């Protein structure tokens, strides 16, 4: 009896091992949907970048680091490599073919503009002879690939919830989301809000906050951010038909102004950073906003995919414009990203998810 049980145990262990080996093998050669696309490392790959900035005439000065004089270009040759698979290389023609007749809209602040510009560059450089038009209607920029009838749009909306001019001044209304009118009928929506929540002083674009019928001069900014996300989440649940519309959240794009967080305590910014943080983890950990965002996303009943780009972007202390951005030597931009650069991989991941 004892021997028989022993044999069964061995058989059981062998089976478990075989299953584990199969799973592991599948993981290594897997298609991206079986693998965690957001845990990985940056590797040098001379076949990147996916486009030369010069082939994309409409990159704004803000992101055009090379033309603004950035001398080191190694940062453009890194590719994001998830630990257990390879990303499918972005294929602009395939993307446009699959989106034929459809519309995509990025909604959010200048980090959305960064990703939108990356997307239009990826698509245009793949098909440089395909006609396009660019138009602006109010706050919405519309890039149309006319032969494919694909619209790639940007709705500039830094809080997602409304800022309304009233008698007392400009009111940030955490429970109001009338701006959502512009999102109706779009086939793929990619939202983002974060960078404007801690603005104070002359660049803060509101005078009062209104929440739950109460108007106040200010409140805990992280709570305000969370409240706005809850309002947005309720809008998604009430308005999105998942059979027609695909919804993404861009995630929290990180800044690099404190070298202590990447074990370089003397660094006060991202200037002269030429290489990514090696490995898969960021010494400084995640910004607290990520936890708030994830907890609100977990309450949404409709399917929303988080482009969980925070860690992979945290590793790219070398990816920002620094003094090669909008204000040149007078500026120090360690918030936005050079193009070509990091947002191309946010889009490559997006491509792998659709
Ligand atoms: C692009 O537009 C031009 C001018 O309108 C037109 O002559 C050309 O045939 C178009 N190209 C394609 C590939 O549709
Ligand atoms: C940088 O980060 C460290 C670690 O979190 C913190 O102690 C320090 O105050 C920060 N420095 C600045 C200038 O914010």
From TrEMBL:
The segment(s) forming the Trichome birefringence-like N-terminal domain are 33-86
Taxonomically, the superkingdom here is: Eukaryota
Q: Which GO terms describe its cellular component?
A: Golgi apparatus; membrane
Which membrane topology describes this protein? Single-pass membrane protein
Q: Where is the signal peptide?
A: 1-25
Sequence intervals crossing the membrane? none
Query: Where found?
Result: Membrane
Trichome birefringence-like C-terminal domain residues are: 89-352
Could you give a GO molecular-function term held by this entry?
O-acetyltransferase activity
Q: Which UniProt key words apply to this protein?
A: Membrane, Signal, Signal-anchor, Transmembrane, Transmembrane helix
Broad class of where this protein is predominantly found: membrane
Q: Which family does it belong to?
A: Belongs to the PC-esterase family. TBL subfamily.
User: What's the protein name?
Assistant: Trichome birefringence-like N-terminal domain-containing protein
Organism for this UniProt entry? Vicia faba (Broad bean)
| Lineage start | Eukaryota, Viridiplantae, Streptophyta, Embryophyta, Tracheophyta
């Amino acid at each position: 009896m004892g021997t028989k049980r022993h044999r069964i145990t061995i058989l059981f262990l062998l089976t478990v091992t075989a299953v584990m080996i199969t799973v592991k093998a599948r993981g290594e050669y897997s298609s991206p949907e079986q693998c965690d696309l957001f845990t990985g490392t940056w590797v040098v790959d001379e076949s990147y970048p996916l486009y030369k900035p010069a082939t994309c005439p409409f990159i704004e000065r803000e992101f055009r680091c090379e033309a603004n004089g950035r001398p080191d270009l190694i940062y453009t040759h890194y590719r994001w490599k998830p630990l257990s698979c390879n990303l499918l290389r972005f294929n602009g023609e395939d993307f446009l073919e699959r989106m034929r007749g459809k519309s995509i809209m990025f909604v959010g602040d200048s980090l959305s503009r960064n990703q939108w510009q990356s997307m239009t560059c990826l698509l245009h450089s793949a098909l440089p002879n395909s006609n396009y038009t660019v138009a602006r209607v109010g706050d919405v920029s519309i890039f149309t690939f006319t032969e494919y009838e694909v619209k790639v749009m940007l709705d500039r909306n830094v809080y997602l919830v409304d800022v309304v001019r009233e008698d007392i001044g400009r009111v940030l209304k955490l429970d109001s989301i009338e701006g959502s009118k512009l999102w109706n009928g779009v086939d793929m929506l990619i939202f983002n809000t974060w960078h404007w929540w801690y603005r104070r002083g002359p660049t803060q674009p509101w005078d009062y906050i209104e929440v739950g019928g109460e108007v106040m001069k200010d409140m805990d900014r992280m709570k305000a951010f969370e409240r706005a996300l809850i309002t947005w989440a309720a809008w998604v649940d009430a308005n999105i038909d998942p059979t027609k519309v695909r919804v993404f959240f861009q995630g929290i794009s990180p800044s690099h102004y404190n070298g202590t967080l990447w074990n370089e305590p003397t660094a006060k910014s991202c200037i002269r950073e030429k290489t990514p943080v090696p490995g898969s983890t960021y010494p400084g950990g995640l910004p607290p906003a990520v936890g708030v965002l994830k907890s609100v996303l977990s309450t949404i009943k409709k399917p929303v995919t988080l482009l969980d780009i925070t860690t992979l972007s945290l590793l790219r202390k070398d990816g920002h414009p620094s003094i090669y951005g909008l204000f040149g030597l007078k500026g120090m931009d360690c918030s936005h990203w050079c193009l070509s650069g990091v947002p191309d991989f946010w889009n490559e991941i997006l491509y792998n998810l659709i």
